Each structure stands twice: as C-alpha cells, then as structure tokens.
Amino acid sequence: MSIKKILITQPKPESGKSPYYDIASRYGAVATFRAFIEVESVTTREFRNQRVNILDHTAIVFTSRKAMEHFFGLSEELRVSIPDDMKYFCINDHVANYLQKFVVYRKRKVFFPEQGGQVELVNLMGKHNKETFFLPMAEDHKNDLIEQLTAKKLLFSHAVMYRTISAEFSVAEKKEKYDMMIFFSPAGVTSLLHNHPDFKQGKLQIAAFGPATCSAVEQAGLRLDLAAPTPTATSMAMALDTYLEQQNK
C-alpha cells in the first residue's frame, strides 16, 4: 500500500520544522500534525479535597514543564501566594530554566542534577533532607518517584494537579482520511476511540512509540504495523524513515 498521508498525533511544531516533514517529503507523502490529547488542571474543589496545603512545604519538585504550568496556574486560582523563599527542585536544567516564566530566578533557590534524571534528582533531594517537599503530579502518574522518596525517608506530600483528556475533533476532522497514524501514548489511542466510537482500521496503518503505546494499540483490537523504538531505530522518526524506504522499494 502506498502511504501518502501521515497523521502525527502530536501538536504542530511551533518552529514549523520537524524531521517528519522531511521524511514524508522524501517519499512523496504529506505529514500532518494534530494533537490527540490535551492537559487540563483539576478544579480547585478537586485539589482541596486532597487535603494538601502547599504552604506547609519549603520546596516544590518539578518533573516536567507541564507540572510547573499547572502548579502555578492552579495556585493562582486557589489564591495561594508562593513565598519568595520557596525552593524548587527540578529534574533537569531544561525544566529549571522554565521557572523564569513564573518566578524571579535565583540560583540559591533552584536545584537540579547536572546530568538530569529521576534517580539523580532523588539523590540531590537527599542532600537537602531538612526540606519538606511537595510534588504536583498528573492524575495518571506512576508511583516510582513516590517510592524512591519514601525509601530515602524524605518529608514530602503529593497531590494531583492536572490530567490528560481526549481532544475533541470537529466533524470535518473526523471525516479526514489518512494512510498512517502515529501514536506516542496510550492516551492518544484512547482519544482515537473516543472520537471514533465505531472506528474500523481497514487499510490504515498504525505506528506506535514505546511499549505502553504499542500495548494500548493491540489491547484496543487494532493492528500494529510499525513499533518503535528498536535496536536499529531509537526514535519514531528513524523507524518511519526505514519503514517508508521499504514500502517504496
């Protein structure tokens, strides 16, 4: 089957550049970006029902920019004024630098591991064991970070501050036809079925990145045509390039 229209289930790149555009063009195809999921904050009532007081803590832990956005956004809705002496522990320098969007960045208040990573972050927090940490988390969070902090015997609490939901498609978008769809999370697969309750795959080829996403595709009763990463293709872009090359032989 000739692949001419590829749907990338991610937001359109702000820069207008992407390896997917280049790969599609190389094989006479067109790549289209459309986010299948959205992230929203929990309501103020939902947060208050968790019985967590942000101001009982001396440090906030951020594992992503999304966590940071929803922490400060929801804090504002709750009318919680974050004190100037609050400390911030971030999973890497990329997330730490994003703090400048929300607070006056002072190096003595911001901490992150040089190499980045969750294990390194926990070890760094262990060196500041007199702090009381707060973790803003997603509704579908994993418990590994909580378990690591518990093992370190650190003082902390956590609360759900945001969740992933399915994006709503317009009637025109639902009618659009593609030769291939590429998914990057189980939530994206859920969104597909949410918007197309009677979805029939037919000749549509489906690609998925990551074991959880691949499993979600198969559990939904869909055919998985391309899985990544692999030993020879560590990214979805690399896997797609190889796949299209084989299809065009």
TrEMBL record:
InterPro entries to which the protein is assigned, alphabetical: 4pyrrol_syn_uPrphyn_synt_sf, 4pyrrol_synth_uPrphyn_synth, UROS/Hem4
Enzyme Commission no: 4.2.1.75
Organism: Porphyromonas catoniae ATCC 51270
Keywords of this entry: Lyase
Name of the protein this chain belongs to: Uroporphyrinogen-III synthase
Regions annotated as coiled coil: none
GO MF annotations, alphabetized: uroporphyrinogen-III synthase activity
Ranges for domain Tetrapyrrole biosynthesis uroporphyrinogen III synthase: 25-236
Gene Ontology CC annotations of this record: cytosol
